[in-house]
């Protein structure tokens, strides 16, 4: 059965502190919008597989379990919790072959996976918490902006953290939504508020 869903994408550095923030934000969004078909994803936990008749978005729960979101023509049709017996790729192939008669599967490379998630997402929240990280989230930001998704992006930076003049030029030029925060609570509250009033029904 086709379902109407809202996908939220969380981006940020994977240093322990930022990662903790991302996980807590995800939990809070899921709790706040329980029962409203809201799904929150972190990029490194997700893989995308395409076949001739269905597409599968998989989210790892842990090393031996994943959730499979099955799409047809960008519409969600099924969700399954699946135990991984022989690794993710082999499990996906076996599962789709048995359930949907799939004969060939293509796992999407990271940029294409990112493009698909950006297209499906209602909103993208990018968190910049520490200056000393490698800045991979800036690459994700620029990729999303140049693909035309700037209106979906909310860029949050910790209060007092300095951004380069060049980055500010890009943020202003492409009209990326930008906010500051002081701690985890203020960050989470701001994101929940944005989702509540601008994207999702109460």
Q: What does it look like?
A:
With 202 residues, the protein is an alpha/beta fold. The protein has a single domain (6-199), classed as Rossmann fold (3-Layer(aba) Sandwich). 38% of the residues lie in helices and 31% in strands. The chain has helices at 16-32, 88-100, 110-120, 136-146, 165-173, 184-199; strands spanning 6-12, 38-42, 46-50, 55-62, 65-72, 75-83, 106-107, 121-128, 153-158, 177-181. The protein has a five-stranded parallel β-sheet, sandwiched between helices. A five-stranded antiparallel β-sheet has the order 6-5-4-3-7, sandwiched between helices. Helix 1 (16-32) packs across helix 6 (184-199). It is globular, with a radius of gyration of 17 Å. The chain starts with 5 loop residues before the first strand and ends with a helix.
Total of DSSP H or I helical runs spanning 4+ residues:
6
How many domains make up the 3D coordinates? 1
- What's the shape? globular
For this structure, what is the CATH class? Alpha Beta
- Specify the CATH architecture: 3-Layer(aba) Sandwich
Q: How would you state the average pLDDT, rounded?
A: 90
CATH fold-level label: Rossmann fold
Rg, alpha carbons: 17 Å
């Amino acid at each position: 059965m086709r379902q109407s869903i809202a996908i939220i994408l969380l981006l940020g550095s994977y240093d322990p502190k930022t990662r903790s923030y991302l996980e807590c934000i995800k939990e809070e969004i899921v709790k706040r919008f329980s029962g409203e078909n809201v799904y929150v994803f972190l990029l490194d936990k997700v893989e995308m597989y395409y076949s001739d008749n269905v597409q599968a978005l998989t989210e790892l729960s842990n090393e031996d379990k994943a959730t499979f979101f099955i799409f047809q023509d960008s519409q969600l049709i099924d969700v399954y919790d699946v135990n991984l017996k022989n690794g993710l790729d082999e499990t996906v192939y076996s599962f789709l072959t048995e359930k949907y008669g799939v004969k060939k599967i293509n796992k999407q490379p990271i940029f294409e996976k990112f493009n698909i998630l950006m297209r499906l997402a209602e909103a993208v929240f990018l968190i910049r918490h520490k200056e000393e990280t490698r800045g991979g989230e800036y690459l994700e930001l620029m990729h999303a902006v140049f693909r035309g998704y700037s209106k979906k992006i909310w860029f949050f930076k910790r209060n007092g953290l300095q951004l380069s003049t060049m980055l500010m030029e890009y943020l202003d030029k492409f009209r990326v939504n930008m906010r500051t925060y002081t701690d985890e609570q203020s960050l989470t509250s701001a994101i929940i508020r944005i989702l509540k009033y601008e994207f999702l029904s109460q």
